[in-house]
């Protein structure tokens, strides 16, 4: 009887161990990974993305596969999220490229319609007075085609700006008349210092990832301080902080030939300096990203 009880206990222990092992081998699935799966699936199902941005779709699928491998190996959530973020960014880029190309096709079609209308009008003018009526109709068609082309241009620019804002959504980017603006608050640095805190490295990494995905974009980094301290000390500190952000981007592969830095000290405050919270808002670094391959316009 004792031997039977011992055997039963060993069997129960073995079953429990097998159950625990099964649980331990379950993959780690994070919200970022779930989002990446959905975004990559959208890109893979989009005919325009497959036609015009097949390479970006493949990159997104490969990056998602990497994230899934990390998940299956139960790597850290941070590593999984990093790979998933790259996959999502690449998939969104593919969708944005497809939208832009579709809009460009519409522009070309409108231009072809306009040229045909002009040719018809020229032939009509050469024939008779009736051709003059045809010419007026052709001019109207050309005007409509030009309006359609202008609308397509505007839609393309809006789509590109929206795609850029979506890719930088985690950094709370917003569109301005100087380009996309990412504001890095005073949590980036210790008070009075220009060394970037370890806790801020994630935000810097996301910004660098985006810039490496868009090598044609130009960058302007502007540093600001509150009113505590002398004007010269604040100006120097703001310059050092903007340069520190530039160096952090360079360390992550961003070419500094694309990057300009400025320091404005306590100029251009976004809040009064009458309270601790207002001064904290004024201690910031603003990163402007161009909407094209041209330098970001300086402050007026």
UniProtKB/TrEMBL annotation:
Domain OmpA-like positions: 176-293
Signal peptide: 1-26
Keyword Magnesium: no
InterPro entries the record matches: Bact_OuterMem_StrucFunc, DUF4398, OMP_bac, OmpA-like, OmpA-like_sf
Pfam families found in the cross-reference section: DUF4398, OmpA
UniProtKB keywords: Coiled coil, Membrane, Signal
Transmembrane segments: none
Source organism, top-level taxon: Bacteria
Positions in coiled-coil regions: 100-174
Record localization: Cell outer membrane
Protein name stated in the entry: Outer membrane protein OmpA-like peptidoglycan-associated protein
Provenance organism: Pelomonas aquatica
Biological classification of the source: Bacteria, Pseudomonadati, Pseudomonadota, Betaproteobacteria, Burkholderiales
């Amino acid at each position: 009887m004792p031997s039977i009880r011992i055997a039963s206990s060993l069997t129960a222990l073995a079953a429990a161990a097998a159950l625990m092992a099964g649980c331990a081998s379950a993959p780690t699935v994070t919200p970022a990974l779930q989002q990446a799966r959905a975004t990559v699936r959208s890109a893979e199902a989009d005919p325009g993305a497959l036609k015009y941005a097949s390479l970006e779709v493949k990159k997104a699928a490969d990056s998602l596969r990497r994230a899934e491998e990390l998940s299956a190996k139960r790597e850290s959530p941070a590593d999984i999220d990093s790979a998933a973020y790259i996959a999502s960014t690449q998939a969104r880029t593919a969708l944005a490229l497809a939208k832009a190309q579709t809009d460009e096709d519409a522009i070309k079609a409108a231009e072809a319609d306009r040229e045909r209308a002009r040719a018809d009008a020229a032939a009509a003018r050469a024939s008779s007075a009736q051709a003059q009526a045809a010419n007026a109709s052709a001019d109207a068609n050309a005007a409509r085609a030009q309006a359609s082309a202008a609308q397509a241009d505007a839609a393309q620019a809006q789509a590109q700006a929206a795609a850029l804002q979506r890719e930088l959504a985690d950094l709370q980017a917003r569109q301005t008349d100087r380009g996309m603006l990412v504001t890095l608050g005073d949590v980036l640095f210790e008070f009075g210092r220009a060394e970037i805190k370890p806790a801020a490295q994630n935000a810097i990494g996301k910004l660098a990832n985006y810039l490496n995905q868009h090598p044609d974009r130009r960058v302007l980094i502007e540093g600001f301080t509150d009113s505590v301290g002398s004007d010269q000390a604040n100006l120097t500190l703001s310059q050092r902080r903007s340069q520190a952000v530039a160096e952090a981007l360079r360390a992550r592969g961003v070419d500094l030939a694309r990057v300009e830095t400025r320091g404005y000290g306590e100029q251009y405050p976004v809040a009064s300096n009458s309270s601790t919270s207002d001064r904290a808002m004024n201690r910031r670094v603003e990163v402007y990203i161009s909407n094209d391959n041209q330098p970001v316009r300086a402050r007026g």
